[in-house]
Design brief:
The protein is an all-alpha fold. The chain has five helices and no strands.
Protein backbone atom coordinates (compact mmCIF):
# COMPACT_ATOMS: atom_id res chain seq x y z
CA UNK A 1 0.00 0.00 0.00
CA UNK A 2 1.41 3.41 -0.91
CA UNK A 3 1.96 6.25 1.51
CA UNK A 4 -1.12 7.99 0.13
CA UNK A 5 -3.11 4.81 0.67
CA UNK A 6 -1.86 4.58 4.24
CA UNK A 7 -2.76 8.22 4.88
CA UNK A 8 -6.21 7.70 3.38
CA UNK A 9 -6.80 4.58 5.48
CA UNK A 10 -5.62 6.37 8.62
CA UNK A 11 -7.90 9.34 7.91
CA UNK A 12 -10.85 7.02 7.28
CA UNK A 13 -10.21 5.13 10.52
CA UNK A 14 -9.89 8.41 12.41
CA UNK A 15 -13.17 9.68 10.98
CA UNK A 16 -14.98 6.44 11.83
CA UNK A 17 -13.63 6.41 15.39
CA UNK A 18 -14.52 10.09 15.80
CA UNK A 19 -18.07 9.40 14.60
CA UNK A 20 -18.40 6.48 16.99
CA UNK A 21 -17.05 8.61 19.81
CA UNK A 22 -19.54 11.38 19.08
CA UNK A 23 -22.48 8.95 19.07
CA UNK A 24 -21.38 7.32 22.32
CA UNK A 25 -20.72 10.70 23.94
CA UNK A 26 -24.17 11.91 22.88
CA UNK A 27 -25.89 8.85 24.32
CA UNK A 28 -23.88 9.07 27.55
CA UNK A 29 -24.68 12.75 27.99
CA UNK A 30 -28.35 12.06 27.34
CA UNK A 31 -28.27 9.26 29.91
CA UNK A 32 -26.61 11.54 32.45
CA UNK A 33 -29.28 14.15 31.72
CA UNK A 34 -32.02 11.60 32.38
CA UNK A 35 -30.31 10.43 35.55
CA UNK A 36 -29.97 13.98 36.86
CA UNK A 37 -33.54 14.83 35.90
CA UNK A 38 -34.78 11.65 37.56
CA UNK A 39 -32.85 12.46 40.71
CA UNK A 40 -34.41 15.91 40.92
CA UNK A 41 -37.87 14.58 40.15
CA UNK A 42 -37.49 11.77 42.67
CA UNK A 43 -36.26 14.05 45.43
CA UNK A 44 -38.77 16.80 44.66
CA UNK A 45 -41.94 14.88 44.17
CA UNK A 46 -41.40 11.31 45.44
CA UNK A 47 -43.49 10.04 42.57
CA UNK A 48 -43.07 6.70 40.77
CA UNK A 49 -42.56 8.55 37.48
CA UNK A 50 -39.01 9.28 38.59
CA UNK A 51 -38.26 5.56 38.69
CA UNK A 52 -39.09 5.42 35.00
CA UNK A 53 -36.58 8.21 34.36
CA UNK A 54 -33.90 6.33 36.31
CA UNK A 55 -34.62 3.19 34.28
CA UNK A 56 -34.47 5.27 31.07
CA UNK A 57 -31.09 6.75 32.05
CA UNK A 58 -29.71 3.34 32.92
CA UNK A 59 -31.00 1.91 29.68
CA UNK A 60 -29.34 4.73 27.73
CA UNK A 61 -26.03 4.09 29.47
CA UNK A 62 -26.36 0.40 28.67
CA UNK A 63 -27.17 1.31 25.05
CA UNK A 64 -24.04 3.48 24.88
CA UNK A 65 -21.89 0.60 26.10
CA UNK A 66 -23.46 -1.82 23.61
CA UNK A 67 -23.08 0.68 20.73
CA UNK A 68 -19.43 1.22 21.62
CA UNK A 69 -18.65 -2.50 21.84
CA UNK A 70 -20.44 -3.33 18.58
CA UNK A 71 -18.83 -0.35 16.82
CA UNK A 72 -15.37 -1.33 18.04
CA UNK A 73 -15.82 -4.88 16.75
CA UNK A 74 -17.06 -3.63 13.37
CA UNK A 75 -14.22 -1.11 13.01
CA UNK A 76 -11.62 -3.76 13.83
CA UNK A 77 -13.11 -6.15 11.27
CA UNK A 78 -13.13 -3.62 8.41
CA UNK A 79 -9.55 -2.54 9.01
CA UNK A 80 -7.45 -3.73 6.07
CA UNK A 81 -4.10 -5.41 6.73
CA UNK A 82 -1.26 -3.22 5.52
CA UNK A 83 2.15 -4.29 4.26
CA UNK A 84 5.21 -3.27 6.23
CA UNK A 85 7.05 -0.04 5.56
CA UNK A 86 10.12 -2.08 4.60
CA UNK A 87 8.18 -3.78 1.80
CA UNK A 88 7.05 -0.39 0.50
CA UNK A 89 10.61 0.94 0.62
CA UNK A 90 11.75 -2.09 -1.36
CA UNK A 91 9.15 -1.31 -4.01
CA UNK A 92 10.23 2.32 -4.19
CA UNK A 93 13.91 1.34 -4.39
CA UNK A 94 13.15 -1.15 -7.17
CA UNK A 95 11.26 1.47 -9.15
CA UNK A 96 14.09 3.96 -8.69
CA UNK A 97 16.55 1.31 -9.92
CA UNK A 98 14.49 0.64 -13.04
CA UNK A 99 14.23 4.36 -13.80
CA UNK A 100 17.98 4.76 -13.30
CA UNK A 101 18.62 1.83 -15.64
CA UNK A 102 16.44 3.35 -18.35
CA UNK A 103 18.15 6.71 -17.95
CA UNK A 104 21.62 5.16 -18.19
CA UNK A 105 20.71 3.28 -21.37
CA UNK A 106 19.24 6.39 -23.01
CA UNK A 107 21.93 8.94 -22.15
CA UNK A 108 24.91 7.84 -20.05
CA UNK A 109 26.39 11.37 -19.78
CA UNK A 110 23.26 12.90 -18.24
CA UNK A 111 22.91 9.99 -15.84
CA UNK A 112 26.51 10.45 -14.69
CA UNK A 113 25.88 14.13 -13.98
CA UNK A 114 22.65 13.27 -12.14
CA UNK A 115 24.48 10.61 -10.11
CA UNK A 116 27.11 13.13 -9.01
CA UNK A 117 24.41 15.64 -8.05
CA UNK A 118 22.41 12.97 -6.19
CA UNK A 119 25.54 11.83 -4.33
CA UNK A 120 26.39 15.40 -3.31
CA UNK A 121 22.80 15.99 -2.18
CA UNK A 122 22.75 12.73 -0.20
CA UNK A 123 26.04 13.66 1.47
CA UNK A 124 24.70 17.11 2.34
CA UNK A 125 21.46 15.74 3.79
CA UNK A 126 23.08 12.95 5.82
CA UNK A 127 26.10 14.89 7.07
CA UNK A 128 26.21 16.49 10.51
CA UNK A 129 25.13 20.11 10.81
CA UNK A 130 28.56 20.94 12.33
CA UNK A 131 30.26 20.21 9.01
CA UNK A 132 27.95 22.65 7.17
CA UNK A 133 28.99 25.65 9.26
Amino acid sequence: MSIQGRASAAATQLALWAGLGIVVLTVVLTAIGFLVASLFIWIDQYKPDAVAAVITGGALLLAAIVIFLIGRVILKKIKKPQPSILAEFGGIAGTAGRIAGLLIRRDPRKSLILAVIAGALAEYVTSDSKKRN
